[in-house]
């Protein structure tokens, strides 16, 4: 039935989501994610627990993806897996599974860079939908829990980081500030939720002074901490009474920093197509701010919500382009926790 199709099974296990997806000729047939609730009570991802949960989840998640896609393992053309960056123990679960499957089925195992995956998520197509995709070159603001980068994308695998954070990532800033506000991990989505109902102009926080296309978020974290300590001295209930406005102010500051650097990059490169990717691109403030840029003669690309945070469809689509470009996908790639773009 699927003989003329190129069917890629994607596996993602770099952090705390175990995910599997099936893509046929670039179109998604299934995209399954098992979140790991266990980390919530520790206020952050515990690597050892993440590896164990991946071990428990991987077979059922792959099984569910194949069922949802309506295929069997014998229909798979190649298996793509996340090779890094990420937590080594977590990466080992997905990569070992993928390599073993590839030997069992005598199909290629394709190592995928997770950050390339976030960017190439813009090329994922739905089954019954024609979608406009970015043309090369475009700029991609990649904002996740571990990265904040502006990437110049000249081809599927021709990417150059032209600006990045010198300290914390944007997602890390959201999560650490959320922790100060006594919100559970991961705090980013909760800050977003409260911010929607808050006044973004009541509390303002300073922008960092870093040059050109660099980002910095550690100063913001410190200024929020000092601000909270001062306010709590005169009102112990300050956080609970003002959570919406605090979140709105923090989110506005982070979004303004991100957008101002992105505009600087547009000016510098004269590239007028911009995209966002990574977990923080799920943020409603960032999505709205980017949409409003379209008035500046800039074309913007915003991924579907489910392709912003970690997922396996982005790994499968990246594997698909590796496959089409006949890139080297030897079975000897060892996972690399610090793999660069
Ligand atoms: O890409 P991702 O799922 O995992 C990494 O590769 O890091 O990104 C996770 C990050 C977390 O820091 C999380 O708090 C943040 O993305 N995030 C958000 C939102 N959804 C996820 N941050 C702000 N607003 C959101 N709606
Ligand atoms: Zn990610």
How is the secondary structure organized here?
Blueprint: E1 7-12, E2 17-24, E3 27-35, H1 47-69, E4 78-84, H2 88-105, E5 109-113, H3 114-120, E6 138-143, E7 148-155, E8 158-164, H4 170-180, H5 188-195, H6 218-234, H7 238-269, E9 273-277, H8 284-292, E10 299-301, H9 313-324
Parallel strand pairs: 1-4, 4-5, 6-9, 9-10
Antiparallel strand pairs: 1-2, 2-3, 6-7, 7-8
The structure holds 5'-O-[(R)-(carboxyoxy)(hydroxy)phosphoryl]adenosine (KG4) and zinc ion (ZN).
Description:
By secondary structure, the protein is an alpha/beta fold. It folds into two domains: 7-130 and 308-324, Nucleotidyltransferase, domain 5; 138-305, Nucleotidyltransferase, domain 5 (2-Layer Sandwich), CATH 3.30.420.40. It has nine helices and ten strands. Strands 3-2-1-4-5 form a five-stranded mixed sheet, with helices on both faces. It is globular. The model has no long low-confidence stretch (mean pLDDT 95). 5'-O-[(R)-(carboxyoxy)(hydroxy)phosphoryl]adenosine (KG4) binds at residues 15, 144-146, 171, 174-175, 186, 188-189, 192, 278-280, 282-283, 309-310.
Task: Summarize the model shown.
40% of the residues lie in helices and 19% in strands. The protein is an alpha/beta fold and 341 residues long.
